[in-house]
Amino acid sequence: METMMKNFMKSHHTLFNPTKSSNTNKNINYQHDGDGDGDGSTIPSLSPLAHSVLSRSAKILAVSVQELQRRFDAEHEADSQQLVKHTRIFLEFCCYQALHHVITNRSDYLSDKDFRRFTYDMMLAWDSPTLVLPVNDSPQNETSISSSEQQVEDEDGWSLFYSTTTSMAVQVDDTITVGREAFARIAPACPAVADVITVHNLFDSLTASSDSRLHFLIYDKYLRSLDKIIRTAKNTQGPLISNLQLAEGEIILDVDGTVPIQPVLQHIGISAWPGRLTLTNHAIYFESLGVGLYDKAVIYDLASDMKQVIKPELTGPLGARLFDKAVMYKSTSVAEPVYFEFPEFKGNSRRDYWLDVCLEILHVHRFIQKNNFNETQQLEVLARAILGIFRCRAVREALCCFSSHYKTLLAFKLAESLPRGDMILETLSSRLALLNATSVSGSPRGKQQLRLSPVALLTLCQLGFTLQKEANLDVEVLAFGDLWAGETNPLEIAVKQSVSDTGKAEAARATVDKVKVEGIDTNVAVMKELLFPVIESAGRLHHLASWEDPFKSMVFLVLCCCAILWGWTRYIIPSIFVWCAVLMLVRRYFSKKMPLEAFRVTAPPNKNAVERLLTLQEAITEVEGLIQTANIVLLKLRAILLAVLPQVTERVALLLIFVAAVLAFASLQHLILLVFLEAFTREMPCRKESSGRWLRRLREWWVRIPAAPVELIKQDDKKRK
């Protein structure tokens, strides 16, 4: 990491030097000279809050608002027809630069209450950028914002984000809330706070109880929880590194099982043992609890390609499948599956959380293995996953909620869950390729190299985490990372396209859950009704083959023989497909308004628990009988193949040679006709007696063939014990 630090500090001065950073902050003049109105005189349409945000941003950057506007006008054309849109782009331009300056010069910005208020004011200003805002733009932000000459001080005597004696601060009403788009445009500018891929899901989690409007108290609580999680993660590195013997660049993401009332049990076979479970960005560690101390950790790798499988599973004492509170880990490195049980009195939220974070690390390493990334790109991908897990922990601890599936806060887990989520990963891969790109962009930003900086990796390093000691970061750091004022990130476009399909997927999933029924007899009854056309067709065909009505059977026989001889059999399957297509099209265009009626199934009589157990036992017995019959057939064929009875083997061999000759020299058409005639005319009155006699002789011959011997070897249970 030393080389990376040197290269980065050369291009951006003293961003990672805490001493120099603190001195730099003190030397910056955060006070505004003037009465506050002078800076915004060239933008008279700004709302008071937007004016305050722009002034504070200019103060942080040590420039005037006019200078920021001059820079902005040099890159963006003015649009008088869309005043609100143009003003919002200008706000984004200033906010992105100010946030970048702050987060690259300070490592403790999340703990600063003024920073949290400042970023929230940015979102409010984005929602209400002008004095006169159309009704449709922000219907819930009509509460007046009053300016005051309030003076807010920080620990050093002056506020970093608010004005001093020059009426720059804005007293914001607590009833004002932030909308989805404002949060999605501002929050990802701070990579630790939000990710472009999951920012909308994060907003939904924060506003689950506030009608999709974000209150400052919730936002502040989330950031304070995130700061606590990051500080805890940094403090956890020291005590556990010596016990786990972590590899270079390995970061501890979460630990569970340290509280006696919330243990973690590891099940292997029929044995179970409590211990401490640790997740890093490369593996899962489990330390069994000994006599007052933890034993040596067992490593379950997630980074290497070992065909790992991680999924939810049932577990219980002595290997019984009773409680749905476990995560199964299986790979080529373990002899048998390992189960981690997370006991809790109600629900399985602990299990779901650990399942998702483990899958996130597994998915991110598979994404790295699939793409030919260089070192910097690999570290950037890992940093995205690590920050995502920190955010997930912060929301879980601050709001006591956990979102999974389509609403997860984990980017790679979300890409695996969403329909067309592979497009998100492809877009991310193309964006990562721009870390070393040198092509000139023709965007509204002007003639500038389209080169992105690894914002997640740099953010993680600034927060005090080290992914790799030696890394060559030969990338020019841009002002705002992967965000540009007035432009939509391609990742956000890919996510929106995938999310648009989730409604249909969730509706389909709801119908599937609704039609699921319990009980073997009930499911069999439903299947019989669904397969009624097939069963009915098979019954009619069997009726014709039984020759109970000779005239119909003879007509069917003649028609089938003609169809086979004239080569019409190849049109049977295409005709079935065409008939089904016509039926569906008729339903599609001529029965649009007809609702789909529920499929009616006659339910079998209700059974009590004992009767259900007996039914289950009978079904298991029947399945066991079928398996035994299949095994006997295979063992008898093995005996014939290995010449246990030489005479039988000789006859079967001659028969196979004769069949091979027939298949080699006879036409397929005649063979099909021969097989059809033999099978269909077996029950004809003139053939019934002879066919029965031949079948009896065949069964007697099969009974006389012995089965090949089988020896059962018991498995060694020493490892299991």
TrEMBL record:
Pfam families: DUF639. Residues 12-41 are annotated as: Disordered. Signal peptide: none annotated. Residues 14-30 have a biased composition (Polar residues). It comes from the Eukaryota. InterPro entries: DUF639 (IPR006927). The chain crosses the membrane at residues 572-590, 652-677. Keywords: Membrane, Transmembrane, Transmembrane helix. This is HEAT-INDUCIBLE TRANSCRIPTION REPRESSOR (DUF639)-RELATED. It comes from Salix purpurea (Purple osier willow).
